[in-house]
UniProtKB/TrEMBL annotation:
NAD(+) binds at residues 8-13, 33, 38, 86-90, 127-128, 161, 272-275, 342. GO terms for molecular function: NAD binding; UDP-glucose 6-dehydrogenase activity. Residues 328-452 form the UDP-glucose/GDP-mannose dehydrogenase C-terminal domain. InterPro entries: 6-PGluconate_DH-like_C_sf (IPR008927), NAD(P)-bd_dom_sf (IPR036291), UDP-Glc/GDP-Man (IPR017476), UDP-Glc/GDP-Man_DH_C (IPR014027), UDP-Glc/GDP-Man_DH_C_sf (IPR036220), UDP-Glc/GDP-Man_DH_dimer (IPR014026), UDP-Glc/GDP-Man_DH_N (IPR001732), UDPglc_DH_euk (IPR028356). It catalyses: UDP-alpha-D-glucose + 2 NAD(+) + H2O = UDP-alpha-D-glucuronate + 2 NADH + 3 H(+). It comes from Glycyrrhiza uralensis. This is UDP-glucose 6-dehydrogenase. The gene is UGDH5.
Amino acid sequence: MVKICCIGAGYVGGPTMAVIALKCPSVEVAVVDISKSRIAAWNSDQLPIYEPGLDDVVKQCRGKNLFFSTDVEKHVYEADIVFVSVNTPTKTRGLGAGKAADLTYWESAARMIADVSKSDKIVVEKSTVPVKTAEAIEKILTHNAKGIQFQILSNPEFLAEGTAIQDLFNPDRVLIGGRETPEGQKAIQKLKDVYAQWVPGERILTTNLWSAELSKLAANAFLAQRISSVNAMSALCEATGANVKQVSFAVGTDTRIGPKFLNASVGFGGSCFQKDILNLVYICECNGLPEVAEYWKQVIKINDYQKSRFVNRVVSSMFNTVANKKIAILGFAFKKDTGDTRETPAIDVCKGLLGDKARLSIYDPQVTEDQIQRDLWMNKFDWDHPIHLQPTSPTTEKKVSVVWDAYEATKDADGVCILTEWDEFKSLDYQRMYDNMRKPAFVFDGRNVVDDDKLREIGFIVYSIGKPLDPWLKDMPAVA
Ligand code: NAI
Protein backbone atom coordinates (compact mmCIF):
# COMPACT_ATOMS: atom_id res chain seq x y z
CA MET A 1 0.00 0.00 0.00
CA VAL A 2 1.37 3.42 -0.98
CA LYS A 3 1.56 5.74 2.02
CA ILE A 4 1.17 9.46 1.56
CA CYS A 5 1.81 12.08 4.21
CA CYS A 6 0.90 15.73 3.72
CA ILE A 7 2.55 18.34 5.94
CA GLY A 8 0.11 21.25 6.37
CA ALA A 9 -3.62 20.70 6.98
CA GLY A 10 -4.83 23.98 5.49
CA TYR A 11 -7.05 25.08 2.61
CA VAL A 12 -4.88 23.13 0.20
CA GLY A 13 -3.58 20.16 2.21
CA GLY A 14 -6.95 19.21 3.71
CA PRO A 15 -9.16 19.12 0.59
CA THR A 16 -6.50 17.76 -1.81
CA MET A 17 -5.62 14.88 0.49
CA ALA A 18 -9.28 14.11 1.25
CA VAL A 19 -9.93 13.78 -2.49
CA ILE A 20 -6.84 11.62 -3.05
CA ALA A 21 -8.06 9.34 -0.22
CA LEU A 22 -11.54 9.16 -1.73
CA LYS A 23 -10.35 8.44 -5.26
CA CYS A 24 -7.55 6.05 -4.28
CA PRO A 25 -8.88 3.59 -1.69
CA SER A 26 -5.63 1.63 -1.87
CA VAL A 27 -3.56 4.63 -0.76
CA GLU A 28 -3.25 5.55 2.92
CA VAL A 29 -3.20 9.29 3.48
CA ALA A 30 -2.14 11.08 6.67
CA VAL A 31 -2.48 14.86 6.91
CA VAL A 32 -0.30 16.33 9.65
CA ASP A 33 0.07 19.81 11.12
CA ILE A 34 1.79 21.59 13.97
CA SER A 35 -1.47 23.31 14.85
CA LYS A 36 -3.28 21.14 17.41
CA SER A 37 -6.53 23.09 17.08
CA ARG A 38 -6.59 22.61 13.31
CA ILE A 39 -6.06 18.88 13.57
CA ALA A 40 -8.69 18.60 16.33
CA ALA A 41 -11.14 20.40 14.03
CA TRP A 42 -10.35 18.07 11.11
CA ASN A 43 -11.16 15.17 13.43
CA SER A 44 -14.46 16.74 14.54
CA ASP A 45 -17.83 17.46 12.92
CA GLN A 46 -16.88 21.13 12.53
CA LEU A 47 -14.11 21.12 9.92
CA PRO A 48 -11.68 24.04 10.15
CA ILE A 49 -12.54 25.33 6.67
CA TYR A 50 -15.84 25.79 4.87
CA GLU A 51 -15.86 24.34 1.39
CA PRO A 52 -18.97 22.99 -0.36
CA GLY A 53 -18.86 19.17 -0.57
CA LEU A 54 -15.82 18.81 1.70
CA ASP A 55 -17.71 17.42 4.72
CA ASP A 56 -19.06 14.63 2.62
CA VAL A 57 -15.67 13.59 1.23
CA VAL A 58 -14.02 13.68 4.66
CA LYS A 59 -16.82 11.67 6.26
CA GLN A 60 -16.48 8.96 3.64
CA CYS A 61 -12.75 8.37 4.18
CA ARG A 62 -11.79 9.59 7.67
CA GLY A 63 -10.67 6.70 9.84
CA LYS A 64 -10.47 4.37 6.81
CA ASN A 65 -7.63 5.60 4.62
CA LEU A 66 -7.58 9.27 5.66
CA PHE A 67 -6.10 10.36 8.99
CA PHE A 68 -5.43 13.75 10.56
CA SER A 69 -2.66 13.90 13.15
CA THR A 70 -0.18 16.12 14.97
CA ASP A 71 2.34 13.30 15.02
CA VAL A 72 4.24 14.83 12.12
CA GLU A 73 7.42 12.79 12.50
CA LYS A 74 5.78 9.37 12.69
CA HIS A 75 3.76 9.87 9.52
CA VAL A 76 6.66 11.38 7.59
CA TYR A 77 8.83 8.45 8.64
CA GLU A 78 6.26 5.95 7.36
CA ALA A 79 5.43 7.71 4.07
CA ASP A 80 6.58 6.90 0.54
CA ILE A 81 5.41 10.26 -0.76
CA VAL A 82 5.53 13.42 1.37
CA PHE A 83 3.55 16.45 0.19
CA VAL A 84 4.52 19.78 1.68
CA SER A 85 1.67 22.28 1.80
CA VAL A 86 2.76 24.72 4.49
CA ASN A 87 2.47 28.50 4.58
CA THR A 88 4.71 30.53 2.32
CA PRO A 89 4.15 34.07 3.63
CA THR A 90 5.55 37.25 2.16
CA LYS A 91 8.68 38.34 4.01
CA THR A 92 8.07 41.31 6.28
CA ARG A 93 11.70 41.92 7.22
CA GLY A 94 15.17 41.80 5.74
CA LEU A 95 16.16 41.07 2.18
CA GLY A 96 13.16 41.15 -0.17
CA ALA A 97 10.76 42.39 2.55
CA GLY A 98 7.26 43.02 1.19
CA LYS A 99 7.87 40.89 -1.90
CA ALA A 100 9.92 37.74 -1.49
CA ALA A 101 8.48 34.53 -0.07
CA ASP A 102 9.43 33.62 3.48
CA LEU A 103 10.44 29.98 3.31
CA THR A 104 10.91 29.48 7.06
CA TYR A 105 8.10 26.94 7.33
CA TRP A 106 9.20 25.15 4.19
CA GLU A 107 12.80 24.91 5.33
CA SER A 108 11.85 23.60 8.75
CA ALA A 109 9.60 20.98 7.14
CA ALA A 110 12.45 19.92 4.81
CA ARG A 111 14.94 19.63 7.67
CA MET A 112 12.49 17.55 9.67
CA ILE A 113 11.91 15.23 6.69
CA ALA A 114 15.67 14.74 6.38
CA ASP A 115 15.98 14.07 10.12
CA VAL A 116 13.30 11.44 10.50
CA SER A 117 13.56 9.58 7.17
CA LYS A 118 14.98 6.07 7.16
CA SER A 119 13.79 5.10 3.66
CA ASP A 120 13.80 6.67 0.18
CA LYS A 121 11.07 9.25 -0.37
CA ILE A 122 9.46 11.44 -2.95
CA VAL A 123 9.00 14.97 -1.61
CA VAL A 124 6.32 16.96 -3.39
CA GLU A 125 6.07 20.76 -3.34
CA LYS A 126 2.38 21.52 -3.05
CA SER A 127 2.82 25.01 -1.63
CA THR A 128 3.30 27.79 -4.13
CA VAL A 129 6.97 28.64 -3.95
CA PRO A 130 9.47 30.86 -5.74
CA VAL A 131 11.13 29.35 -8.78
CA LYS A 132 14.13 27.21 -7.83
CA THR A 133 12.85 26.46 -4.33
CA ALA A 134 12.99 22.78 -5.19
CA GLU A 135 16.71 23.18 -5.78
CA ALA A 136 17.18 24.68 -2.31
CA ILE A 137 15.04 21.98 -0.72
CA GLU A 138 16.94 19.31 -2.61
CA LYS A 139 20.17 20.67 -1.16
CA ILE A 140 18.83 20.57 2.39
CA LEU A 141 17.61 17.03 1.91
CA THR A 142 20.68 15.64 0.16
CA HIS A 143 23.13 17.27 2.58
CA ASN A 144 21.31 15.59 5.44
CA ALA A 145 20.36 12.39 3.66
CA LYS A 146 22.44 9.73 5.44
CA GLY A 147 22.39 7.59 2.29
CA ILE A 148 18.68 8.00 1.64
CA GLN A 149 17.47 8.99 -1.84
CA PHE A 150 15.08 11.93 -2.08
CA GLN A 151 13.36 12.91 -5.30
CA ILE A 152 11.80 16.37 -5.40
CA LEU A 153 8.70 17.02 -7.46
CA SER A 154 6.75 20.21 -7.97
CA ASN A 155 3.00 19.62 -8.08
CA PRO A 156 1.41 23.06 -7.68
CA GLU A 157 -2.26 23.21 -6.78
CA PHE A 158 -4.71 25.05 -9.03
CA LEU A 159 -7.91 24.58 -7.01
CA ALA A 160 -10.05 27.63 -6.34
CA GLU A 161 -11.55 28.07 -2.90
CA GLY A 162 -15.33 27.81 -2.97
CA THR A 163 -15.18 25.20 -5.73
CA ALA A 164 -12.21 23.21 -4.41
CA ILE A 165 -13.89 19.82 -4.38
CA GLN A 166 -15.28 20.17 -7.89
CA ASP A 167 -11.90 21.45 -9.09
CA LEU A 168 -10.13 18.49 -7.51
CA PHE A 169 -12.64 15.95 -8.89
CA ASN A 170 -12.38 17.39 -12.36
CA PRO A 171 -9.19 19.45 -12.75
CA ASP A 172 -8.37 21.32 -15.98
CA ARG A 173 -4.91 19.87 -15.51
CA VAL A 174 -2.59 18.34 -12.96
CA LEU A 175 0.96 19.57 -13.32
CA ILE A 176 3.95 17.53 -12.19
CA GLY A 177 7.48 18.84 -12.55
CA GLY A 178 10.54 16.76 -11.83
CA ARG A 179 14.18 16.19 -12.62
CA GLU A 180 14.97 15.03 -16.14
CA THR A 181 16.96 12.05 -14.83
CA PRO A 182 15.80 8.40 -14.84
CA GLU A 183 15.15 8.64 -11.06
CA GLY A 184 13.28 11.91 -11.53
CA GLN A 185 11.13 10.40 -14.28
CA LYS A 186 10.40 7.37 -12.10
CA ALA A 187 9.20 9.65 -9.30
CA ILE A 188 7.00 11.59 -11.72
CA GLN A 189 5.46 8.31 -12.88
CA LYS A 190 4.72 7.25 -9.30
CA LEU A 191 2.81 10.47 -8.59
CA LYS A 192 1.14 10.28 -11.99
CA ASP A 193 -0.15 6.82 -11.06
CA VAL A 194 -1.92 8.32 -8.05
CA TYR A 195 -3.71 11.04 -10.05
CA ALA A 196 -4.39 8.70 -12.96
CA GLN A 197 -6.88 6.86 -10.75
CA TRP A 198 -9.41 9.59 -11.57
CA VAL A 199 -7.80 12.21 -13.85
CA PRO A 200 -7.66 11.44 -17.61
CA GLY A 201 -4.07 10.88 -18.76
CA GLU A 202 -4.05 13.79 -21.23
CA ARG A 203 -4.78 16.20 -18.38
CA ILE A 204 -1.71 15.19 -16.41
CA LEU A 205 1.07 17.42 -17.67
CA THR A 206 4.69 16.75 -16.88
CA THR A 207 7.48 19.33 -17.13
CA ASN A 208 10.82 20.09 -15.62
CA LEU A 209 10.88 21.41 -12.05
CA TRP A 210 11.30 25.08 -12.84
CA SER A 211 8.55 25.15 -15.44
CA ALA A 212 6.10 23.67 -12.95
CA GLU A 213 7.05 26.18 -10.26
CA LEU A 214 6.86 29.13 -12.63
CA SER A 215 3.60 27.96 -14.25
CA LYS A 216 1.80 28.31 -10.93
CA LEU A 217 3.02 31.87 -10.39
CA ALA A 218 2.26 32.71 -14.02
CA ALA A 219 -1.27 31.26 -13.89
CA ASN A 220 -2.16 33.34 -10.83
CA ALA A 221 -0.59 36.45 -12.33
CA PHE A 222 -2.63 36.01 -15.53
CA LEU A 223 -5.87 35.48 -13.57
CA ALA A 224 -5.29 38.52 -11.38
CA GLN A 225 -4.33 40.55 -14.43
CA ARG A 226 -7.74 39.89 -16.02
CA ILE A 227 -9.47 41.17 -12.90
CA SER A 228 -7.31 44.29 -12.77
CA SER A 229 -7.91 44.86 -16.48
CA VAL A 230 -11.68 44.80 -16.12
CA ASN A 231 -11.49 46.86 -12.93
CA ALA A 232 -9.43 49.48 -14.72
CA MET A 233 -12.16 49.54 -17.38
CA SER A 234 -14.81 49.94 -14.67
CA ALA A 235 -13.32 53.29 -13.66
CA LEU A 236 -13.42 54.45 -17.27
CA CYS A 237 -17.00 53.20 -17.64
CA GLU A 238 -18.11 55.26 -14.67
CA ALA A 239 -16.41 58.33 -16.12
CA THR A 240 -17.98 57.91 -19.55
CA GLY A 241 -21.40 56.40 -18.92
CA ALA A 242 -20.58 52.98 -20.40
CA ASN A 243 -21.70 49.88 -18.49
CA VAL A 244 -18.87 47.53 -17.52
CA LYS A 245 -21.16 44.48 -17.61
CA GLN A 246 -21.99 45.18 -21.23
CA VAL A 247 -18.37 45.93 -22.07
CA SER A 248 -17.01 42.78 -20.42
CA PHE A 249 -19.69 40.64 -22.05
CA ALA A 250 -18.83 42.08 -25.46
CA VAL A 251 -15.12 41.60 -24.84
CA GLY A 252 -15.50 38.09 -23.41
CA THR A 253 -17.49 36.74 -26.37
CA ASP A 254 -14.27 36.93 -28.39
CA THR A 255 -13.15 33.30 -28.24
CA ARG A 256 -9.53 34.45 -28.05
CA ILE A 257 -10.37 36.21 -24.77
CA GLY A 258 -13.19 34.14 -23.27
CA PRO A 259 -15.78 35.14 -20.66
CA LYS A 260 -14.25 34.00 -17.37
CA PHE A 261 -12.66 36.27 -14.75
CA LEU A 262 -14.09 39.40 -16.32
CA ASN A 263 -16.41 40.55 -13.53
CA ALA A 264 -15.68 44.02 -12.27
CA SER A 265 -15.56 44.19 -8.48
CA VAL A 266 -14.13 46.00 -5.51
CA GLY A 267 -10.92 44.03 -6.07
CA PHE A 268 -9.41 40.59 -5.88
CA GLY A 269 -8.37 38.96 -2.62
CA GLY A 270 -7.43 35.55 -1.33
CA SER A 271 -4.20 34.19 -0.04
CA CYS A 272 -2.53 33.73 -3.41
CA PHE A 273 -2.89 36.43 -6.05
CA GLN A 274 -1.10 39.31 -4.37
CA LYS A 275 1.49 37.11 -2.72
CA ASP A 276 2.31 35.22 -5.89
CA ILE A 277 2.58 38.37 -8.00
CA LEU A 278 4.86 40.01 -5.42
CA ASN A 279 6.93 36.89 -5.57
CA LEU A 280 7.05 37.03 -9.36
CA VAL A 281 8.04 40.70 -9.20
CA TYR A 282 10.86 39.86 -6.82
CA ILE A 283 12.12 37.04 -9.03
CA CYS A 284 12.08 39.37 -12.05
CA GLU A 285 14.02 42.03 -10.15
CA CYS A 286 16.56 39.47 -8.96
CA ASN A 287 17.02 38.34 -12.55
CA GLY A 288 17.68 41.88 -13.82
CA LEU A 289 14.28 42.33 -15.46
CA PRO A 290 12.93 45.58 -13.94
CA GLU A 291 10.55 46.27 -16.87
CA VAL A 292 8.89 42.90 -16.46
CA ALA A 293 8.70 43.43 -12.70
CA GLU A 294 7.01 46.83 -13.21
CA TYR A 295 4.51 45.32 -15.61
CA TRP A 296 3.25 42.81 -13.03
CA LYS A 297 3.41 45.30 -10.17
CA GLN A 298 0.78 47.33 -11.96
CA VAL A 299 -1.75 44.50 -11.49
CA ILE A 300 -1.50 45.00 -7.73
CA LYS A 301 -1.51 48.78 -7.99
CA ILE A 302 -4.82 48.72 -9.89
CA ASN A 303 -6.24 46.38 -7.27
CA ASP A 304 -5.28 48.80 -4.50
CA TYR A 305 -6.64 51.70 -6.56
CA GLN A 306 -9.98 49.91 -6.97
CA LYS A 307 -10.37 49.45 -3.21
CA SER A 308 -9.50 53.05 -2.37
CA ARG A 309 -11.71 54.30 -5.23
CA PHE A 310 -14.60 52.39 -3.66
CA VAL A 311 -13.99 53.90 -0.22
CA ASN A 312 -13.73 57.38 -1.72
CA ARG A 313 -17.00 56.84 -3.54
CA VAL A 314 -18.74 55.89 -0.30
CA VAL A 315 -17.37 58.85 1.61
CA SER A 316 -17.88 61.45 -1.09
CA SER A 317 -21.47 60.33 -1.77
CA MET A 318 -22.35 60.70 1.88
CA PHE A 319 -21.55 64.41 1.98
CA ASN A 320 -17.81 63.83 2.23
CA THR A 321 -17.94 62.35 5.71
CA VAL A 322 -18.91 59.07 7.28
CA ALA A 323 -17.89 60.09 10.80
CA ASN A 324 -20.20 58.34 13.25
CA LYS A 325 -22.44 57.12 10.46
CA LYS A 326 -23.41 53.49 10.60
CA ILE A 327 -22.32 51.56 7.53
CA ALA A 328 -23.48 47.98 7.09
CA ILE A 329 -20.93 45.68 5.50
CA LEU A 330 -22.51 42.70 3.78
CA GLY A 331 -19.90 40.06 3.11
CA PHE A 332 -16.37 39.88 4.47
CA ALA A 333 -14.94 36.69 2.87
CA PHE A 334 -12.80 37.31 -0.20
CA LYS A 335 -15.37 35.52 -2.35
CA LYS A 336 -18.59 33.58 -1.94
CA ASP A 337 -18.76 29.99 -0.69
CA THR A 338 -15.70 30.27 1.51
CA GLY A 339 -15.05 31.55 5.01
CA ASP A 340 -11.52 32.57 4.00
CA THR A 341 -10.72 36.23 4.63
CA ARG A 342 -7.05 36.29 3.72
CA GLU A 343 -6.31 39.51 1.77
CA THR A 344 -10.05 40.06 1.32
CA PRO A 345 -10.77 43.53 -0.13
CA ALA A 346 -13.22 43.95 2.76
CA ILE A 347 -10.25 44.50 5.08
CA ASP A 348 -8.96 47.53 3.19
CA VAL A 349 -12.45 48.91 2.59
CA CYS A 350 -13.35 48.58 6.28
CA LYS A 351 -10.03 50.08 7.35
CA GLY A 352 -10.61 52.97 4.92
CA LEU A 353 -14.08 53.65 6.33
CA LEU A 354 -12.85 53.34 9.91
CA GLY A 355 -10.10 55.80 9.00
CA ASP A 356 -12.91 58.22 8.21
CA LYS A 357 -14.47 57.40 11.61
CA ALA A 358 -17.43 55.33 10.39
CA ARG A 359 -19.18 52.80 12.64
CA LEU A 360 -19.36 49.40 10.98
CA SER A 361 -21.85 46.59 11.38
CA ILE A 362 -20.62 43.53 9.55
CA TYR A 363 -22.48 40.42 8.43
CA ASP A 364 -20.98 37.47 6.60
CA PRO A 365 -22.66 34.05 6.54
CA GLN A 366 -19.39 32.16 7.07
CA VAL A 367 -16.90 34.39 8.87
CA THR A 368 -16.75 34.51 12.66
CA GLU A 369 -16.56 37.67 14.72
CA ASP A 370 -13.18 36.67 16.11
CA GLN A 371 -11.75 36.35 12.60
CA ILE A 372 -13.11 39.72 11.48
CA GLN A 373 -11.83 41.58 14.54
CA ARG A 374 -8.47 39.90 14.11
CA ASP A 375 -8.26 40.78 10.42
CA LEU A 376 -9.03 44.42 11.09
CA TRP A 377 -6.23 44.79 13.63
CA MET A 378 -3.58 42.58 12.08
CA ASN A 379 -0.57 44.03 10.25
CA LYS A 380 -0.10 43.42 6.53
CA PHE A 381 1.09 39.84 5.80
CA ASP A 382 0.71 38.67 9.45
CA TRP A 383 -2.18 36.41 8.42
CA ASP A 384 0.01 33.94 6.56
CA HIS A 385 1.47 32.19 9.57
CA PRO A 386 0.17 29.15 11.47
CA ILE A 387 -2.80 30.30 13.52
CA HIS A 388 -1.15 29.86 16.91
CA LEU A 389 1.69 32.17 15.82
CA GLN A 390 -0.60 35.00 14.71
CA PRO A 391 -1.13 38.05 16.92
CA THR A 392 -4.49 38.07 18.73
CA SER A 393 -6.96 40.90 18.34
CA PRO A 394 -7.69 43.40 21.10
CA THR A 395 -10.75 42.27 23.10
CA THR A 396 -13.42 44.57 21.68
CA GLU A 397 -13.55 47.54 19.44
CA LYS A 398 -16.64 49.67 19.72
CA LYS A 399 -16.57 50.95 16.16
CA VAL A 400 -17.00 47.46 14.68
CA SER A 401 -19.83 45.11 15.52
CA VAL A 402 -20.34 41.75 13.89
CA VAL A 403 -23.89 40.46 13.59
CA TRP A 404 -25.47 37.29 12.26
CA ASP A 405 -28.18 38.79 10.07
CA ALA A 406 -28.22 41.22 7.14
CA TYR A 407 -31.29 43.03 8.51
CA GLU A 408 -29.67 43.55 11.89
CA ALA A 409 -26.56 44.90 10.19
CA THR A 410 -28.54 47.42 8.14
CA LYS A 411 -30.92 48.55 10.90
CA ASP A 412 -30.57 52.35 11.36
CA ALA A 413 -27.64 52.35 8.94
CA ASP A 414 -26.92 55.20 6.56
CA GLY A 415 -25.37 53.02 3.91
CA VAL A 416 -24.78 49.42 2.88
CA CYS A 417 -21.60 48.14 1.23
CA ILE A 418 -21.81 44.75 -0.47
CA LEU A 419 -18.30 43.32 -0.48
CA THR A 420 -18.81 39.59 -1.18
CA GLU A 421 -21.05 38.13 -3.89
CA TRP A 422 -22.93 35.69 -1.61
CA ASP A 423 -26.03 34.43 -3.45
CA GLU A 424 -28.26 35.30 -0.50
CA PHE A 425 -27.54 39.01 -1.02
CA LYS A 426 -29.41 38.86 -4.33
CA SER A 427 -32.67 37.87 -2.70
CA LEU A 428 -32.71 39.99 0.45
CA ASP A 429 -35.85 42.01 1.19
CA TYR A 430 -34.38 45.39 0.27
CA GLN A 431 -37.69 47.17 0.89
CA ARG A 432 -37.59 45.97 4.50
CA MET A 433 -34.01 47.11 4.74
CA TYR A 434 -34.78 50.52 3.27
CA ASP A 435 -37.66 51.03 5.70
CA ASN A 436 -35.31 50.52 8.64
CA MET A 437 -32.44 52.70 7.40
CA ARG A 438 -31.72 56.40 7.78
CA LYS A 439 -32.44 58.53 4.74
CA PRO A 440 -31.07 59.16 2.23
CA ALA A 441 -30.22 55.45 2.17
CA PHE A 442 -27.29 54.29 0.07
CA VAL A 443 -26.25 50.94 -1.41
CA PHE A 444 -22.68 50.58 -2.66
CA ASP A 445 -22.52 47.34 -4.57
CA GLY A 446 -18.91 46.24 -4.81
CA ARG A 447 -19.81 42.99 -6.57
CA ASN A 448 -22.63 44.00 -8.90
CA VAL A 449 -25.07 41.53 -7.34
CA VAL A 450 -28.15 43.68 -6.77
CA ASP A 451 -30.80 44.76 -9.27
CA ASP A 452 -29.88 48.43 -9.20
CA ASP A 453 -33.04 49.63 -11.02
CA LYS A 454 -35.27 47.87 -8.50
CA LEU A 455 -33.35 49.37 -5.61
CA ARG A 456 -33.67 52.84 -7.11
CA GLU A 457 -37.42 52.31 -7.37
CA ILE A 458 -37.46 51.54 -3.64
CA GLY A 459 -35.70 54.83 -2.99
CA PHE A 460 -32.04 53.86 -2.53
CA ILE A 461 -29.18 55.83 -4.00
CA VAL A 462 -27.21 53.07 -5.69
CA TYR A 463 -23.60 52.80 -6.73
CA SER A 464 -22.67 49.72 -8.76
CA ILE A 465 -19.07 49.33 -9.83
CA GLY A 466 -18.53 50.32 -13.45
CA LYS A 467 -22.18 51.13 -14.18
CA PRO A 468 -23.65 54.48 -15.21
CA LEU A 469 -23.79 56.72 -12.14
CA ASP A 470 -26.87 58.02 -10.35
CA PRO A 471 -27.26 61.79 -10.78
CA TRP A 472 -26.53 62.04 -7.05
CA LEU A 473 -23.15 60.41 -7.47
CA LYS A 474 -22.28 62.41 -10.57
CA ASP A 475 -22.59 65.55 -8.51
CA MET A 476 -20.18 64.17 -5.94
CA PRO A 477 -17.16 62.92 -7.83
CA ALA A 478 -14.68 60.72 -5.99
CA VAL A 479 -11.06 60.99 -6.90
CA ALA A 480 -8.87 58.14 -5.68
P1 NAI B 1 -2.89 27.38 5.29
O1 NAI B 1 -2.33 28.47 6.10
O2 NAI B 1 -4.37 27.16 5.29
O3 NAI B 1 -2.22 25.97 5.74
C1 NAI B 1 -0.88 25.79 5.99
C2 NAI B 1 -0.74 24.88 7.22
O4 NAI B 1 0.61 24.48 7.37
C3 NAI B 1 -1.15 25.53 8.54
O5 NAI B 1 -2.22 24.80 9.12
C4 NAI B 1 0.12 25.47 9.40
O6 NAI B 1 -0.15 25.25 10.77
C5 NAI B 1 0.87 24.31 8.76
N1 NAI B 1 2.32 24.30 8.98
C6 NAI B 1 3.21 25.31 8.82
N2 NAI B 1 4.47 24.88 9.07
C7 NAI B 1 4.37 23.57 9.40
C8 NAI B 1 5.32 22.56 9.75
N3 NAI B 1 6.64 22.83 9.79
N4 NAI B 1 4.88 21.31 10.03
C9 NAI B 1 3.54 21.03 9.99
N5 NAI B 1 2.61 21.93 9.64
C10 NAI B 1 3.01 23.19 9.35
O7 NAI B 1 -2.38 27.60 3.80
P2 NAI B 1 -3.02 27.07 2.43
O8 NAI B 1 -4.04 28.02 1.92
O9 NAI B 1 -3.38 25.64 2.57
O10 NAI B 1 -1.78 27.24 1.47
C11 NAI B 1 -0.65 26.38 1.55
C12 NAI B 1 0.18 26.64 0.32
O11 NAI B 1 -0.56 26.35 -0.85
C13 NAI B 1 0.65 28.09 0.18
O12 NAI B 1 1.93 28.08 -0.40
C14 NAI B 1 -0.32 28.68 -0.81
O13 NAI B 1 0.24 29.74 -1.51
C15 NAI B 1 -0.60 27.48 -1.72
N6 NAI B 1 -1.88 27.50 -2.41
C16 NAI B 1 -3.03 27.93 -1.79
C17 NAI B 1 -4.24 27.90 -2.47
C18 NAI B 1 -5.50 28.37 -1.82
O14 NAI B 1 -6.50 28.50 -2.51
N7 NAI B 1 -5.51 28.61 -0.53
C19 NAI B 1 -4.35 27.39 -3.85
C20 NAI B 1 -3.11 26.91 -4.37
C21 NAI B 1 -1.94 26.98 -3.66
